[in-house]
Design brief:
4-stranded antiparallel beta sheet, Immunoglobulin-like, transmembrane helix, 21 strands, 3 domains
Length: 367
């Protein structure tokens, strides 16, 4: 029997072919899988302008060792994409690991938008075919007109220095009908008014009727206002302190007072005293007490509004008799005297003087 030698030619040929096939596959697939660009986009209708807004993203897919990227061809339809353009200049200035973003703003009737690019990397690889995306826009994008402005009735409330409350009621200029207001208080005040579109009116509530105010309007489900009126601001204050020895008048003009005022005090005996009180100041005048003493107080410019104070009527009831002897009452001393002095502080408003100050202050406000 003759045995033939085993031939290695065929197995080596198979192995060689396999190696060649693998090498070819790597050579062809490596650039496509390791370095390529991806295009994506999303469209939204901007109803404030009636335009389609397409946000585009170009992502570079590259190995971590890649350090540079560029776009060497870009085609966008129907208009260019702001933010994604051909890279100008030499080199690869773009970061291959940071996506590029851009925007198209298109008329609301646009049907399609597209973007296609070709990128290249500093490793020598590049997109040999277009990487692209086409978006079909979903119908017509229309501008939405804002709803017509509603003319909501409004109010303001202010209190002047003698307690008068002014409620100012306003109807919007865009209103299509009159506003029907009602102002009521817990003290029994009530007034209804109708304000034309674009109009304004004021309801005045006397000081003694201004507790717990409610303002309503027929077209509103809830009251526009419920509560107390604000405290007046910028009002002068006055005080009177009467003891067994004298009478002291004090006047204060607040810092936000708009002007000075002058008060004149004329005693039944003795010299006339005049004080001018500027904004932010407090001043006082004192008259020695004596039987039958009276003091006339008035604000310059309002000479018809004189208020008279009598020391005999204002002094404490338990003052000692003049002279303090002859079997009369003993002088009041110690804690009792202090208590009388403190209890003798009276507001000039009781006599009407503060009222006139307040009235002058209000005139200043409206001048």
């Amino acid at each position: 029997m003759i045995s033939s030698k085993l031939s290695l030619r065929r197995p080596l040929a198979v192995v060689g072919a396999a190696f060649l096939g693998l090498a070819a596959a790597v050579a062809v697939a490596s650039p496509a899988s390791a370095h390529h660009s991806v295009v994506d986009g999303k469209a939204v209708c901007d109803t404030t302008t009636g335009e389609w807004v397409v946000d585009w993203t170009v992502t570079s897919v590259a190995p971590p060792e890649s350090t540079g990227y560029r776009l060497y061809e870009v085609v966008a339809k129907p208009i260019p994409v702001t933010g994604i353009e051909v890279t100008l200049g030499d080199g690869y200035p773009l970061n291959p690991h940071t996506p590029l973003t851009g925007t198209q703003r298109l008329p609301g009737t646009t049907v399609q938008a597209s973007l296609q690019v070709k990128g290249a990397w500093d490793s020598g690889h590049e997109d040999t075919k277009w990487k692209k995306k086409t978006i079909t826009l979903g119908g017509v994008c229309e501008k939405e007109e804002p709803p017509p402005a509603t003319a909501t009735p409004t109010y303001t409330i202010a209190t002047d220095c003698d307690g008068l409350v002014a409620v100012t009621l306003t109807n919007g200029k865009d209103a299509t009908a009159p506003a029907k207001f009602k102002v009521v208080t817990a003290a029994g005040f009530e007034e209804s008014v109708e304000v034309a579109p674009g109009g304004e009116t004021t309801v005045e509530i006397p000081a003694d009727k201004a507790d717990e105010i409610t303002v309503t309007e027929a077209g509103q489900e809830k009251p526009l206002f419920t509560g107390s009126a604000p405290e007046p601001e910028g009002c002068p204050t006055a005080g009177l302190e009467v003891t067994c020895e004298d009478m002291t008048f004090s006047l204060t003009n607040p810092e936000d007072g708009s002007e000075s005022f002058t008060a004149v005090f004329t005693p039944s005996t003795g010299d006339v005293q005049k004080i001018t009180v500027a904004p932010g100041e407090s001043k006082s005048v004192t008259f020695a007490g004596s039987a039958g003493l009276t003091v006339d107080a008035v604000i310059e410019g309002y000479e018809d509004d004189v208020v008279t104070f009598a020391w005999d009527e204002e002094k404490p009831e338990d003052c000692p008799a003049p002279g303090g002897g002859g079997g009369g009452d003993l002088p009041v001393t110690g804690a009792a005297a202090g208590g009388i002095a403190a209890g003798a502080v009276l507001l000039l408003a009781v006599g009407g003087f503060l009222f006139y100050l307040a009235r002058r202050r209000r005139l200043t406000f409206t001048a």
